[in-house]
Amino acid sequence: MTTHADTDAPAAEATRTKGRIRPFQVSGGSEQIAAGPFDFVTGVNYFYEDAESATVTVNRRGTSTFTPAGGLPNGNADAGLFRSGDTHTEQKSNSFGWFNSATWHATQKFNVTVGARLAHDAKDYEQTRFPSNGDNWAPAPGTSSTTVTSDHSWTDVDWRGTLDYHFTENLMTYATVSKAYRAGQYSYTIAALIPGPAQSGDVIQPIPPEKVVNYEIGARTTLSIVRAHSSMSWVPGTPRVISNGCTVRDSSIRRARSR
Questions:
Q1: Which domains are delineated in the chain?
Q2: Of the ranges 75-84, 98-107, 145-154, which one carries the lowest mean pLDDT score?
Q3: Which segments of 103-228 does DSSP mark as H helices, in order?
Q4: How far apart are CA 194 and CA 198, in angstroms?
Q5: 248-257 burial string, b = 16+ CB within 10 Å, else e?
Q6: What is the dihedral of CA 102, 105, 111, 115, to 10 degrees?
Q7: Residue 253: enclosing H or E segment and its boundaries?
Q8: pLDDT tens for residues 14-64?
């Protein structure tokens, strides 16, 4: 990703970020058990991600300098390119989950479903900053760069409860309340002239996890060729979100419409 912010010539600035993400995910052990009016589902999943990014800001400056503290007029020639904020960042994430769900078929039309997921997330963080000719940042004396590291883990439980009622075979309404969690992450600016180990570990505090409780009500209907749904969900303190949609079930109709 490259973003540009241009000023009067010959000054111009570009921030370049290059990165790559290597994810890996696997789910296994999922099993559904039926016992009378109850259905149970249990299983585990694992997610791994290795994300890297390299960022640098390249600024073309003129020979005149003007700052709030004063400046020096020196014509309008090209002073050259200046690099700043030259960093390389890598974050490795490991996520483990154990999920369980149970449905009680109270009647032929009314169902109650509850579920929970135990999540454990661990992140390893490493960032290296290099000296540049465009800022006042410098590594610790006797070194050519500064590398900081940190790691942290979180354990939390997501849960969900749903009531659904089938008025007919083709019309169902439901109400759901759920709690979702997302692990924290890192964001840090390496200090100048301080060795990496002195600003690593607990010195770098991660951004706390996000936790959200969501409420949703909706209806789903299935006709001979169309499946439609309409729902409204909201999170306390945020605007409501209304969702509508439909799906054509007959593949021959989908092909005819695409021609």
A1: 25-54+88-258 (2.40.128)
A2: 75-84
A3: none
A4: 7
A5: eeeeeeeeee
A6: 0
A7: helix 251-258
A8: 776 777 888 888 876 566 788 889 999 999 999 999 999 999 999 888 887
